[in-house]
Design goal:
Blueprint (H helix, E strand, L loop, with lengths): L8 H10 L5 H14 L7 E5 L5 H6 L5 E6 L2 H10 L5 E5 L12 E7 L7 H11 E12 L4 E3 L4 H15 L5 H7 L3 H6 L5 E13 L1 H10 L1 H9 L1 H19 L8 E13 L2
Parallel strand pairs: 1-2, 1-4, 2-3, 4-5
Antiparallel strand pairs: 5-8, 6-8, 7-8
The protein binds S-adenosylmethionine.
Pfam families: Methyltransf_11
InterPro entries: Diverse_substrate_MTase, Methyltransf_11, SAM-dependent_MTases_sf
Protein name: Methyltransferase type 11 domain-containing protein
């Protein structure tokens, strides 16, 4: 099982505030997939595995009778519980490798930006056990290095960010390397014939400079750097904000930058 990287409440609050918003396109992709495979039958149960602060859990809630968010991090779940008013959503501390539900009881096993931390063979064994016939798996994440765009200053901004990524990638572990491979390993390991691997799903997000600095802090590699060398982490964050402000000049407080991301998604159906 993965080490608990999301164990501090302060980090969970930063995560909830600054992690890029949930992708409606990805949620809709997963929902259309499961609705298509279950021929319009009512959807009873979704599991959101590695649900974190419950961001995707809530976007699944209107489409299922019940949604259960699972995570190994109590601090992530504590933020999730504070945010949730939906009556059909509940949360539980549980690992992806031992899902706390009955055999053949789940319509959708969903994992957003989390499956790279799971022990994949155990997670897939459990997924196969809990899915109903016609039930589906949807696991997705995004490519780690986004591109920034702002008038004719995009190159300068991306040079600054490349230095940030270079520093953070010194802390890359196997999980993050799996993200670079766009979940190819997960796709190949799924013991089902009916499966799809969709990559290069574009997204554009507008962020102010403080939101970009917040986003960097919400990446767990930055949290790892903070744990190992707080002064270096703080210096990088302060210098990055300063350099961004210098590049944008008088527009630094008023304008947002475009951040271009690419998502990827693995979908599978158990017949
Ligand atoms: C980057 S967060 C994503 C949270 C949420 N799905 C979202 O998209 O905002 C990854 C989450 O996976 C959880 N996690 C990591 N390994 C896990 C495991 N083996 N079982 C359950 N949760 C796990 C972490 O605690 C963390 O909350």
């Amino acid at each position: 099982m993965a080490v608990n990287l999301f164990k501090k409440s302060a980090f969970s609050l930063i995560y909830q505030k600054y992690m890029i918003p949930v992708s409606d396109e990805i949620t809709n992709m997963a929902l259309s997939y499961v609705k298509g495979k279950t021929n319009g039958q009512p959807l009873e149960m979704a599991l959101d595995v590695g649900c974190g602060t419950g961001r995707y859990t809530l976007s699944l809630a209107p489409h299922f009778t019940k949604v259960l968010g699972l995570d190994i991090s109590e601090s992530q779940l504590s933020v999730a519980k504070d945010m949730t008013l939906a009556k059909n959503v509940s949360y539980m501390v549980a690992p992806a490798e031992k899902l706390p539900v009955k055999d053949a009881s789940v319509d959708l096993v969903h994992a957003g930006v989390a499956a790279h931390w799971f022990t994949i063979d155990k997670f897939l064994d459990e997924t196969m056990r809990v899915l109903k016939p016609g039930g589906c798996l949807a696991a997705h994440s995004y490519e780690p290095v986004p591109e920034f765009e702002y008038n004719n200053l995009s190159h300068d901004l991306n040079v600054v960010m490349a230095e940030v990524w270079d520093t953070l990638f010194q802390y890359v572990d196997k999980s993050t390397k799996d993200m670079f491979c766009r979940y190819q390993h997960l796709y190949e390991a799924i013991p089902l014939n009916d499966k799809e691997h969709i990559t290069d799903i574009p997204a554009k997000i507008q962020l102010s400079i403080p939101e970009i600095i917040g986003f960097i802090q919400a990446i767990y590699l930055c949290e790892q750097l903070k744990e190992k060398d707080m002064r270096r982490a703080e210096k990088i964050l302060i210098q990055t904000e300063k350099r961004f402000r210098e590049i944008l000049g008088e527009k630094a407080d008023s304008d947002c930058l475009n951040m271009y991301m690419k998502y990827y998604c693995v979908l599978a159906c158990k017949h």
